[in-house]
Amino acid sequence: MHRRRALALRSGGNPLFLTELAGNPSVTDGEALPDSLEGLVTARIDRLPPPARALLRAASVLGMRCESALLDELIATSPMSISSLDQVDGLLAREGEEVHFLHQLVRDCAYGGLPFRARRDLHRRAARLLGLRATTPDLVGLLAVHSFCAGEYDAALEHSVTAARHARAQYANTEALHHYRRAVEAGARRTPEDRDRRRMGRLWWELADIQIDLGDLAAAADSLQRARRLVPDDPVHRARTALSLVVERALSDDHRNALAWATRALRDLEGVEGGEAAQLRSEAHRRRALARLGQGRLVAAARESEDAVRTARSGRVPGELAHAVALQASILSELGRPVDLDLLLSSSRHPEVRQDLRRSAWLENAIGVTAFNQSAWEISREAYLTAERLYVEMGRPIDIALQQANQAEVLIFQGSLEEEIGRAHV
Q1: Dist. CA 123–CA 62, nearest whole Å
Q2: Which of 114, 292, 316, 350 is the most buried (most CB within 10 A)?
Q3: Can you state the percent helix, strand and coil of the chain, rounding each to 5?
Q4: pLDDT digits over 81-112, tens only?
């Protein structure tokens, strides 16, 4: 009874800790109980026969779960064997064609017990083996991890960027965030002569874009400042990062500084020619209009939106033109001036616009605002709902919440909010 009570107290209600304590033959009535679950698991691993312990630690390099065939290949040149699985019962198990750890803590303790040099060597061998297989997005991500842990930072950078951009294209933003972080860390660890400042500046900007989408605005601001410091002499890069800082400041309701950054982007682009410069110049005017709108200065916002439309037309940037037209329509609507809603709807259907989910979502929101001010409730609500769906697909929680609030506002003005809530609870 005393031992059971002691085990229950020491485990703190943790089932795994209690199981390990109860099954530990070294814990007797007369001995002090281990202080932590980590210590207990580590002690159990240390008591394994050397081949089984080596197998467990090799498997830990491959993660929580891996293919049995890959583990076999990894240990092929060593005295250990996958047949030693019988000796690690309760820690590592086979399931079909895979081997998996029974608990994350077991994997962490096994991995932590590997000497640094042995760990690097196993990661290097794992990278070589994975590199011989067909290249899929999932394998590229694994290659990036193993290359990084092996200290092969050139390969880690290449694979991390490929994996990050693939995840970004799929709107798997959290996954993309991890890959981008590894990419910039790998880039920082390369020898100085191998560093490409322009490329790393671009990667910090791409990382910031993900952080903005995930709502981590402070991290985004830091990443953007790093991007700017890396490439101080490229006006297009400086304008691009300045406009991202406009977005970060606007989402923080700091419209004064958002306006300042948009103005700085225009200064950076003075005298710069080319398609990307034209697109950024038009966006800068549009961001200035949005900042004025955020400040409640509607007349000034209307003037800025006219500049945005004019610049987009002269620069022949159809996507930005659709944006500018939509923004101008919403501002004119706020001012009580007439708006051609049909023209707005048709301009937002440009093929280039519809290929870009982010642009489409913003335009749907603008349509919702304009239709709301025209008392076109159903058009407004449908546009907000479409925008919400697009933001869900992109994984942007702040914008999702804003679109839901917009829909609620429409229902309030329709006088049907309570009816809609009641229908939702049926």
Answers
A1: 8
A2: 292
A3: 75, 5, 25
A4: 555 566 667 788 888 888 888 888 889 889 99
